[in-house]
Amino acid sequence: MSQIQGALVGIAMVLSAVFIPMAFFGGSTGAIYRQFSITIVSAMALSVLVALILTPALCATLLKPVSAEHHENKGRIFGWFNTTFDHSVNHYTNSVGKILGSTGRYLLIYALIVAGMVVLFLRLPSSFLPEEDQGVFLTMIQLPAGATQERTQKVLDQVTDYYLKNEKANVESVFTVNGFSFSGQAQNAGMAFVSLKPWEERSGDENSAEAVIHRAKMELGKIRDGFVIPFNMPAIVELGTATGFDFELIDQAGLGHDALTQARNQLLGMAAQHPASLVSVRPNGLEDTAQFKLEVDQEKAQALGVSLSDINQTISTALGGTYVNDFIDRGRVKKVYVQADAKFRMLPEDVDKLYVRSANGEMVPFSAFTTSHWVYGSPRLERYNGLPSMEIQGEAAPGTSSGDAMALMENLASKLPAGIGYDWTGMSYQERLSGNQAPALVAISFVVVFLCLAALYESWSIPVSVMLVVPLGIVGVLLAATLFNQKNDVYFMVGLLTTIGLSAKNAILIVEFAKDLMEKEGKRCC
Questions:
Q1: 210/272 same-domain check
Q2: Where does the chain cross the membrane (predicted)?
Q3: Are 138 and 52 in the same domain?
Q4: Do 11 and 118 have their domain in common?
Q5: 460 contacts: CB under 8 Å, gap ≥ 6
Q6: How many helices (H) and strands (E) does the chain have?
Q7: Hey, CA dihedral for 161, 163, 169, 173, is it positive or negative?
Q8: Is 366 within a domain?
Q9: What gap in Å lies between CA 84 and CA 519, rounded to an integer?
Q10: How far apart, in Å, are the Cα atoms of 65 and each of 60, 68, 69, 72?
Q11: Residues 344 and 353: beta-carbon distance below 8 Å
Q12: What is the CA radius of gyration of the chain?
């Protein structure tokens, strides 16, 4: 135990030093890291306790002394294994001796490996979280401004028919909503919630949610009456409404709604010129449309004894309806709503015929204190960080990482007129945040591991010899990720940090025995 006790303590310190800093990162990225950090550190601490306390007792009970000829009398398989293993050890020992005789050459090779590691890391496509098949996805429908609900319903019926007929092998059910979508509430908007069959009934990549969505984009994109955009749900639903990127275009100079709309259309036009990198780039909002504006002369209303709250309540009740109470009819509870009859709320002039009760109890017509006219504007005005903004959503094209797509959007946005800025929100903001945190996370892990080893061995040179092994493990991770087209996301960073800890663990075992051997021979090792 005296030979490996120090190594076990060193391994525990190194693995803790690698994963504990992850628990102190903020945001949603920190919340994900924290789960891995606490789990791995707890498991590692328990395993070290078992190795220091229970394993020696079990070894003393189960392992018995054997004679020197015990291994030589093994059968054919075990004898072949022992012989091969001894040859491998001798070959490794001779190779290490040759390397020590040509340190300059191999230090140059090591430097090239480190340089290759940096190049591989920089070229690895970035992402936040991989897309997942959650058994459900969404389809957004938006028709031109002013389209009626009847037109919207026809498009929703087309979408439903496509999923239930063309994708009947994968789709379980379709639920549609007319008049609502994530872009806002309007009669030209709609949503379809598509539920897929259980995963065991959809074996094969061609039956995955991603494949179904891809085919739906190709077919539903042929509908000419409006935009139909299927999209997957984000891996963490609290961070957005759809996969892809969330881009906020911001009016930073107070240029006005029209200038912001022109900049948005210009950006959408530039994005459409890059179909190999960007797909489904769309505004997540409602287009400008004709609106009926009712202006209240507050001085006249006050003179007539009519309050603004009563005016608003009257319009809301007459046009939209107001819940009153419940009543029981033949054993069933029914709701009571108050609303103007349909024929008295169909025309703009009908508003002037509404009456509101004044403070002295008289009924005053709306025409006495209001004027009305038609205007053209946005039914949904957005603000981001207190500034007028418009949200744009989109996805990276197949074969393009989300990080590359976001970089392209930033490049296109830089070409917009002065005074128009941008920012990221939702999962895109978290991806940018995690990308900025990744170098700091790796650097902190390296520094803390080095300091822990320096404190353990009371030396500055021994930790260096341990840390020199880490880049070799990182190169292996990067090569595997590159060969299998993996991305630099949150899970990749967890695996990378695990590799750092395991590489240092193996080096600690070798360095610990080498240190003890040199001390027994009376040589200084630090």
A1: no
A2: 7-26, 38-63, 107-124, 438-457, 464-484, 490-514
A3: no
A4: yes
A5: 454, 526
A6: 15, 15
A7: negative
A8: yes
A9: 31
A10: 10, 10, 12, 15
A11: yes
A12: 34
Residue 99 lies in a domain: no
Contact (Cβ atoms closer than 8 angstroms) between residue 339 and residue 317: yes
Q: Which residue has the tokens 């200084």?
A: 524
Same domain, 406 and 273: yes
Q: Is 350 left (phi over 0), alpha (psi -120 to 50) or beta?
A: alpha
CATH number for the domain that contains residue 212: 3.30.70.1430
- Do residues 163 and 28 share a domain? no
Note the pTM of the prediction, 2 decimals: 0.71
Asked if residue 359 and residue 305 are part of one domain, the reply reads yes
Supply the angle between the helices 490-520 and 426-457 in degrees, to the nearest 10.
Answer: 10
Q: Please return the burial class of 496, using the count of CB atoms within 10 Å of its CB with bins 0-12, 13-18 and 19+.
A: buried
CATH code assigned at 48: 1.20.1640.10
Question: Do both 318 and 199 map to the same domain?
Answer: no
pLDDT in tens, the chain (526 residues): 666 777 777 777 777 777 887 777 777 777 888 888 888 888 888 888 888 888 888 887 887 776 656 655 556 777 788 888 889 989 988 888 888 888 888 889 999 999 999 899 888 888 888 888 889 999 999 998 888 899 999 999 999 999 999 999 999 999 999 988 888 888 899 999 999 999 888 888 889 998 999 999 999 989 988 889 999 988 877 777 788 889 999 999 989 988 999 999 999 999 999 988 998 898 888 888 888 889 999 999 999 999 999 999 999 999 989 999 999 988 899 999 999 998 888 888 899 889 999 998 899 999 999 999 888 888 878 899 999 999 999 988 887 888 889 999 999 999 999 999 999 988 888 888 777 676 777 788 778 878 888 887 778 888 888 888 888 888 999 999 999 888 888 888 888 888 888 888 778 878 877 777 777 777 766 5
CA separation (Å) from 225 to 216, 279, 284, 288, 353?
16, 20, 18, 18, 37
What range does the domain containing 438 cover?
Answer: 5-63+110-127+432-520
122 and 137 share one domain = no
* Count: domains in the chain: 4
Amino acid at 520: K
**What are the backbone angles phi and psi of residue 494, rounded to the nearest 5°?**
-65, -45
Last residue of a domain, one of 209, 233, 257: 233
Q: Would you say residue 419 lies in a domain?
A: yes
